[in-house]
Design brief:
Elements (H helix, E strand, L loop, with lengths): L1 H8 L1 H4 L4 E4 L1 H19 L10 H17 L3 H15 L2 H12 L3 H6 L1 H10 L1 H5 L10 H15 L4 E6 L3 H4 L1 H7 L7 E5 L2 E5 L3 E7 L5 H21 L7 H9 L5 E4 L7 H4 L9 H12 L5
Parallel strand pairs: 1-6, 2-5
Antiparallel strand pairs: 3-4
Helix pairs in contact: 1-14, 3-4, 3-5, 3-8, 5-6, 13-14
């Protein structure tokens, strides 16, 4: 443990580290926002990504559903959605629908777009979800880290991923989106914009056992996970290892998909100028590359 702390405390080592952290339960509720709220609200001409409304909605689901409906309601909703996406069965659809339709008063209002999807389209709405790992966060996290590096340096990037990761199963999507011949365009909203093309020169998928760099990334990921779990339980002073890791990595640049009590664009810092719609851009790129996102 001392060696890990010493390694991560080294300022030169830190200059090469970029971290993307995801709170899984919060991210799962965010997937409901992305795949249910977004298409339902878009039908009425509303873009939930403008001014960070998608983030505010995910925060609201995370913090408000349990007070409205009782402890663990949000977790039950998330797990039922996860089962539905993975199984695509009638049983999973009924279980998810029952949880949604049991919502009362303010909770029912918060879940109104989900209720609308169930009442208007039934199971067919959820059957049209892409088959590919829509619950997975690996590709999005890798993309965020590459974007961070691309904004900080003009150097070309050669990337190595663990071949056993879910990223490897989405390699064609990744290669298409980070390709050097993607048209030069600014994409995204407010502070969440990305300049394409990114600076990726190559991407390789290798076995961790044969690749020291991937092994080091696993060590860093383990340290970050330990710190996050420590913070979730209130940062107890008794866990000195997690406390030392937290101190050692305090200055490492990071991107967090994490719940907060922020519900306005001002609080979320999502009031800036918007560029091209990321969904439209991704569809255009994938179609041009002949890649089926489903």
């Amino acid at each position: 443990r001392g060696m890990i702390i010493a390694f991560l405390s080294d300022t030169e080592v830190q200059s090469y580290i970029r971290v993307a952290v995801t709170h899984k339960r919060f991210a799962l509720l965010g997937k409901i926002v992305d795949h249910v709220y977004e298409p339902i609200l878009r039908e009425n001409g509303n873009d939930i990504y403008v001014r960070g409304a998608n983030i505010a909605l995910a925060n609201a689901l995370y913090f408000l559903l349990d007070p409205f409906m009782g402890k663990a309601y949000a977790s039950k909703l998330g797990r039922a959605f996860q089962d539905l996406v993975r199984q695509r069965s009638e049983h999973a659809y009924i279980a998810f629908s029952k949880i949604v339709m049991s919502a009362k008063d303010k909770a029912a209002g918060l879940l109104a777009p989900v209720v609308a999807a169930i009442r208007s389209y039934g199971k067919a709405f959820f059957d049209q979800f892409p088959e590919r790992h829509i619950l997975d966060v690996a590709l999005a996290s890798a993309f965020v880290i590459v974007d961070m590096w691309s904004k900080e340096s003009s150097d070309k990037l050669s990337l190595v991923h663990d071949e056993s990761s879910t990223m490897a199963k989405q390699g064609d999507l990744w290669e298409a989106l980070v390709s050097a011949d993607v048209s030069a365009e600014l994409v995204g909203y407010d502070r969440r914009k990305t300049q394409f093309p990114l600076r990726v020169m190559s991407t390789e998928f290798r076995r961790s056992i044969d690749t020291p760099g991937v092994q080091l990334a696993d060590v860093i990921a383990g340290a970050v996970s330990a710190v996050c779990k420590w913070r979730l339980i209130g940062s107890p002073a008794s866990d000195m290892y997690a406390a030392e890791l937290s101190f050692a990595m305090a200055s490492v640049p990071n991107h967090r998909t994490w719940p907060s009590m922020d519900f306005t664009a001002e609080a979320l810092e999502t009031t800036g100028i918007d560029a091209q719609d990321p969904l439209d851009f991704a569809v255009k790129v994938l179609q041009a590359k002949g890649v089926d996102p489903r």
